[in-house]
Amino acid sequence: MPSLKDIKRRIKSVKNTQQITKAMKMVSAAKLKRAQDEITAARPYAEKMLGLITSLASKTSPESHPLLSPRETNANVGLILITSDRGLCGSFNTVLLKTAERFLREKKDSTVSLYLIGKRGMEHFKRRQMNLISSRALGSGRPSYSSAVDTARQVIEMYLKGDLDEVHIVYSQFKSALTQTPVAQKLLPIAAPEATEAEGEAQVEFIFEPTPEAVLSSLLPKYVEVQAFRALLESSASEHGARMTAMDSASKNASEMISGLTLKYNRLRQAAITKELMEIIGGAEALKG
Predict the structure, then answer these.
(1) In what order do the strands lie in the sheet with 180-188?
(2) Which of helix, strand or coil describes residue 112?
(3) DSSP code for 289
(4) Which residues belong to CATH 1.10.287.80 in the chain?
């Protein structure tokens, strides 16, 4: 049975841990507000770009640009995986890694090359025999557009060279502080949506100026850059939301543990006092006799 001193030491240790989890929750809450504002501002542009490009793809011949042309085989597939650098964010990284593992199983007949962003993904695949395009830490600051451009340009170059036949990206889409959804999105080749147009929707005819090739050569790489940047922003907001929720849960669990330990401490202390009183009374009775 633990002594009073041991229980008191445990209570102090749990209180110190609780102070840390509360501080981490406050930091994550502040970062989440900024990240949420950024993704809210970026989403309309990214979604409009997605709609424009997929509409162009449906009305343009795949031969108009290499990024629109599907390959005869999908022997070489690229996967961009975005995880966090740090833990203490609940199941955030676990869900993303499981999504990546499921993707690898689905593409078991292809050679998959990984582009890893985030230390958790790097650590997970470090000891596995996987083809690695690149790996880098996510960084502690806000996601920058320049990092998305670097990623997009590298995979586009490999796709145009024929080193990759497809490029996909796995990231966490931010819904709320409590909800983050893993997403596996195909980036290349850019394809028209499979869904049919809604009835009564106006048919849009595009006029290319100066030429379709010039317009597509400018728009399509920009589309890949924007989608990569959106994925970075979504994952950043999701990470902060997951960490804030995890630290809030940890703080509540610490409070319950402190209450339980305090109750146990008081009971043991009361039992010790009662025992001492009984010894004193027993000694006094012995002296009287």
Answers:
(1) 131-136, 111-117, 76-82, 166-174, 180-188
(2) strand
(3) -
(4) 4-20+247-288
Q: How is domain 36-193+204-245 classified at the CATH fold level?
A: Pyruvate Kinase; Chain: A, domain 1 (3.40.1380)
User: Residues 75-93: pLDDT tens digits?
Assistant: 899 999 999 998 888 889 9
Nearest to 155 by CA among 99, 106, 117: 117
For the chain, residues classed under CATH 3.40.1380.10 are 36-193+204-245
Distances (CA, A) of 128 to 95, 101, 132: 19, 12, 10
- Residue linked to tokens 């042309």: 69
Model confidence, pTM: 0.82
Q: Give the domain 4-20+247-288 fold.
A: Helix Hairpins (1.10.287)
Q: Is 144 helix (H, G, I), strand (E, B) or coil?
A: coil
What is the C-alpha separation between 286 and 149, in angstroms, rounded? Answer: 89
> What residue ranges in the chain does DSSP mark as E strands?
76-82, 111-117, 131-136, 166-174, 180-188
User: Tens of pLDDT along 228-266?
Assistant: 999 999 999 999 999 999 999 899 899 999 999 889 888
Active site residues: 89
Q: Tell me the three state secondary structure of residue 180.
A: strand
**b/e per residue, 222-248, with b = 16+ CB within 10 A?**
ebbbbbbbbbbbbbbbbbbbbbbbbbb
